[in-house]
Design a protein that fits this description.
The complex is a heterodimer of chains A (200) and B (753). By secondary structure, chain A is of the alpha+beta class. Chain A is built from eight helices and five strands. Chain A has a five-stranded mixed sheet, with helices on both faces. In chain A, helix 1 packs across helix 3 and helix 5 packs across helix 8. The longest helix of chain A has 14 residues. By secondary structure, chain B is an alpha+beta fold. Chain B has three domains: 310 residues, Aldehyde oxidase/xanthine dehydrogenase, molybdopterin binding domain (Aldehyde Oxidoreductase, domain 4); 164 residues, 2-Layer Sandwich (Aldehyde Oxidoreductase, domain 4); 158 residues, Aldehyde Oxidoreductase, domain 3. Chain B has a seven-stranded mixed sheet, sandwiched between helices. In chain B, strands 7, 8, 9, 16, 17 and 18 form a six-stranded mixed sheet that branches. In chain B, strands 19-27-28-29 form a four-stranded mixed sheet, sandwiched between helices. Classes of the chains: A alpha+beta (200), B alpha+beta (753). The interface between A and B is large, with 63 and 60 residues.
Amino acid sequence: MARKKIDESRRDFLKTVGVVASASASLTIAPEARARQALATLGPGEVPVTLTINGRRHQLNVEPRVTLLDAMRTRLEITGQKRVCDRGACGACTVIIEGRTYYSCSMLAIEAQGKNIRTVDGLANGSTLHPVQQAFCDNDGLMCGFCTPGFVMATVALLEKNPNPTPEQAKRALDGNLCRCGTNIGVLKAALAVKGGARG
Amino acid sequence: MDNGSRIPASGSRQVAEVQAPARPPQHEKYPWPEKSRLLGTRVSRIDGPMKVSGRAKYSYDIVRPGMLYGRILRSPHAHARLKSIDASAAEKAPGVKALLITIKPGEKVMFPGEEIGALAAATEQQAADALRMIKVEWEVLPALANVEQAMRPEAPQVFTPANTRRGTAQEDGDLAAGFKSAAFTVEGTYSTQVQTHTSLETHGCVCEWNGDNLTAWVSTQAVHGTREGFAQGLKIPQANVRVITEFMGGGFGSKFGPDMQGLLCARLAKAANAPVKLMLDRKEEHLATGNRPSAFAKVKAGVSADGKLTAFDATTWGTGGAGAGSDYPLPYIYVFPNRRRMHTDVYINSGQQRAMRAPGHPQGCFVTEVLMDELADQVRMDPMEFRLKNLPPLAPNAMWAKYFPMGAERINWKSRHVTGDPTPGPIKRGLGCSANRWGGAGTGARAHCEIASDGSVVMRCGTQDIGTGNRTIMAMVVAETLGLEVPQITIELGDSHHPFAPGSGGSTTAAAVMPAMRVTAGKARDALFERIAPQLGVAATEINIGVGEVHVVSPSTPDSSASGQTASRSGQAPILRRVAWRDACKMLGTVPVSVDGQWERGLSAGGTSGVQFAEVEVDIETGITKVKKIVCVQDCGLVVDLKTAETQCHGGIISGVNYGVFEERILDRNTANMVNPNMEWYHMAGQSDIPEIDVVLVDTPERGVIGIGEPPAVATAAAVANAIRNATGVTLRNIPITPDKLLTELERAGGTN
């Protein structure tokens, strides 16, 4: 079971903000990371964070340890992406940042600043669904719907990069998302039904 | 779980003993239409747009003003006695608003993850921090981490009165005579693993009090049952409790009440005087919210030289965790004229089992079906022919003899080689088959229907849509009955304020709710006719339903509206006048049509049968099995929505693939702690692991509606296991068939060539 690449910056963060970055550890840290280590320590209390989500800027205060997913869900009530495994295995929290999929449970809110974050909540144009969303409905690519926002975002990211994927390519791109109801047949049909990927 | 059927969901009785009537009596007043306009067509889920856009609010998504976050304190030990607990620091921790301890010194915990307290704080982080400040001292006691440990004579007695509970022997026929007439016997020990439900939305709720009244948004399969559970657990009247579940992220049998986390959440909300959200995390979900019991079966079975089963003798056991049962139906489906079976429940220190998608059946199916292939090899028969020879007689709920050849055609069964793929090279291909049965009958749902003067139709029912498509098929039945289109129907469900409906378990929902929809919509239609008849200047019996309109029909024609005939049949009567639906409803004025209805006999049934075929490729160098294709032939009575019914089959099959080759709860043999309480090491199929799936839904409308949620989940693992056996020539008698097990067995057998 292939897994999506987890954003490497969480590890960088641990190295940067962690209070026990020992001398031996720092020897192995890349120069860029070492440079960042010189930055002021954030927290442990709440810090101001600015997030740009679906084109809208949100200012909020969260502890540095709060993930992007939790900041969106509990502070901003942007609840489209779901918290399921909370450790980068299931993909229900998948967001798109600068054209790439990320597990928002495995990225801190403070790291997501200054980036254009897209969630399922911002895909539809009013009551007009994004073609990928429409394809999920038409092909019954959902049951309980809890994995659906993640699958939709992974599919959007795939089609924006590769508008006409082969079934194998589509499967690979969706391998980082898990469904428990077993809607995968409809999901794959949906991903392959949208030609050209982009809106309309 | 009550599957409401005449066919037992568990136990050793065989389907042959209870057979459904060929044509059950039909409902007199509102039978299903002979020709449907909508039923049996492909309709997209009406809540699809809400779910794909993130607008669907699940319990996990509910945010209330001033809401706190709850966390549960759990036992880290499998078996321990509390020495002391000190929560004073946690109580004073930043953000903490309420704290409850539910264990006293001297009391014991029986499994890792058992609830011992809870707290609520302003943020999730503060709740987690405070939880860590609670100092707990334990006297750790000897624990039982698996059935082998629990069954050892020298095992410490952990459970009262004993670590095991022996059932009564179930016997039929003359076992000795059966074995005497056998030309061949097969003996073996078969086993299946413990799996957890792993619903994507974890268990939990948001609780909010208004004085003595509780509103709870709960991830549940039973809004009314959960209301009752809150009332009992909190000792308050049911009238004071409202449970809302507009959307929920999967349950699979594990979500039927408030559970401990729901009651703790409500008590925290009361104590803090603020709404509290308490959703479990993934580890808690694996540990404490149910699982499918393991099953072990030491079997000896006999077959005559001409391929007739003669005898079946099994000693079986399994664990449902700390004090819960583990029985399952065995032998499954096939007729062993002489049989004996003795089951023993074994208790270990792990979370208790709960009903899980067709409880008992995948276990019984796996044991029996693998045995069947081994017996077929003994008599050198094709495994399908062998099955056909030993099936119960054909009946509406026992159609395997008809379905096996249908499935064989679609999987290209004639291309099957005998056990062990002779093709050189590491990739071995194989085919396997198996059969399933289930109940799927339901009763007891009630509903309320309103037709307003603007033509809008609202149907309210306290059922829930747990992802099956219930909402959609409800709208289809109402639309069919009123001659409208699906988008014209508003379905309101998932609220205990709505009329009672049973919990969604045992595949009973469709069979419980669809008759209520048909009857209630039919009554609403009749009430509409009564109300508008004076204005139309005709008798109510002269009005009928068209498509998007009502018809005034010739009074000389038989009373078709009262007999529930819909558009297609009323077309036979001369139509004197057509009135558009909206215009007809306008005649109602300010008082809407408002009627109650309920499930009635003659629109649903129970008892389904199905078969599945699997095609696999096994790489005997890596031990990796690739399930290539599953063929599923399945009936479920009257098919309401062909689209969502097929998806139900896909879902069941994929869960069966997981059961067969991927998922397993693994406990540390020393601590009984789960070592894979997550979703990366608790393996489930990813998109690349999904086989091609070919579903043949056999529509049997004369039987009425029967549930289909569970039946397709039963047979897949067994079919896959038999296909692996056919491919490799080695017999794996336990699932999941992971590469390590397969390589070990291949090594022992010296490969397939």
